[in-house]
Amino acid sequence: MPRVFLIALFAATMCAACGKDTTTSPTTTSAPSKTAEVFGGTLGIGDSQFYSFSAYQAGTTDATPLSLRPTGVLTTTLATIVGLGLGTPSGTDCALRSATPAAPALMKQLSVSLDPSTYCVKIADIGNLTTAVEYTVQVVHP
Amino acid sequence: MKTSGKTAALGAVAGLALLAIACGKDNTTSTTPTQTPAAPTAIEHYVGTVGVGGSGFYSFSVPQYGTINLTLTQVSGVDDPAVQVGLGLGVPSGFGCTSSTTITTAAGSDPQITGAYAIGVYCVRVYDVGNLTASATFDVAIAHP
User: Fold this and answer.
1) Do A18 and B23 touch (CB under 8 A)?
2) Which residues make Cβ contacts (< 8 Å) with residue B140, sequence separation at least 6?
3) What domains, with CATH codes, occur in chain A?
4) pLDDT of residue A30
5) Least CB-CB distance to B121: which of A39, A41, A88?
6) ipTM of this predicted complex?
7) pTM for the complete prediction?
8) Is the predicted pLDDT of residue B112 greater than 50, yes or no?
9) Cβ separation of A91 and B61 shorter than 8 Å?
10) Domain spans in chain B, listed from the N-terminal domain onward
11) Smallest Cβ distance to B12: which of A7, A19, A92?
């Protein structure tokens, strides 16, 4: 009788366990990792250029003009204000959703919250260039 | 008493065996939902000029999963209007368009590139594959949802 009882108890335990997959849900959340891309080129008077990137997660994207210097001159950084914008590639251009006048600085000057998709950063002469300049811009995105 | 105990034990063992077989099996039939791509409802035209050894691209947005059809409808400005150029479909990246599908083709009336694509931003790239001897003007019809 005790043996039967033990078997029944074991069966009951099996029944209780059956079908239950023990899963542990992660409770920690971490900020999405970000990717920094630096691009550059030569910007002529009245010109604009754009650079496309893909954000793989929702989050904030920051754009920073890092440097602006006369073509071929490595030792000088200009304080000239150019246009800096962020938007979506559209047609043969970058359709801006946000833009700001910006001079080179080591701090973000444009910050936009974006969903996962493909976007573009645009730099443009807004009338302040007197000669072609070489620029670098950093974009940090999720 | 002894016999009934054995019977009970055998019954319990049989029950355990059945449990062991059943345990871990979720008797659910999973079916992967199939999504029908939406038909194109919009047409954009990328009209541009490609120089010798050059390329250009055009970006567009697809708001829902659906079919994209690219048709190089016209190449003009060159001696041979049937000249073949490169046509690509991809994603804007950096200063250009990274093509995932490419074809070397002459102008025609049927789509040279077609496929079902997810929501996103895409680009069409037209480029010289070495056949151009002068700049050519082209027209690409982009049909998408």
Assistant:
1) yes
2) B45, B46, B47, B58, B70, B71, B72, B73, B87, B124, B126
3) 35-141 (2.60.120.380)
4) 66
5) A88
6) 0.74
7) 0.77
8) yes
9) no
10) 42-144
11) A7
A140: left (phi over 0), alpha (psi -120 to 50) or beta: beta
Per DSSP, A50 falls in state E
Q: Return the number of other C-beta atoms located less than 10 Å from residue A86's C-beta.
A: 24
- On chain B, the residues whose CB falls within 8 A of the CB of A53 are 93-94
Under 8 Å CB-to-CB from B66, ≥6 apart: which residues?
B37, B38, B39, B40, B116, B117, B144, B145
Query: In the structure encoding, which two tokens stand for residue A72, read together?
Result: 């071929």
For the stretch A19-54, pLDDT in tens is 445 555 556 566 668 999 999 999 999 999 999 999
Q: How many CB pairs under 8 A join A and B?
A: 78
CATH number of B42-144: 2.60.120.380
* CA distances in angstroms from B7 to B2, B3, B13, B129, listed in the order given: 9, 6, 10, 84
State whether A90 and B120 contact (CB < 8 Å).
no
* A45-75: pLDDT as tens digits: 999 999 999 999 999 999 999 999 999 888 8
Inter-CA distances, A53 with A21, A65, B2, B87, B98, Å: 41, 16, 79, 22, 11
Q: Which of A15, A20, A118 is most worth mutating to test chain B (most B CB atoms within 10 A of its CB)?
A: A118
B8 in contact with A, Cβ within 8 Å: yes
B89 touches chain A (CB under 8 A): no
Of B5, B16, B91, the CB nearest to A14: B16
Alpha carbon B73 to chain centroid, angstroms:
21
Min distance A100 CA to chain B CA atoms (Å): 21
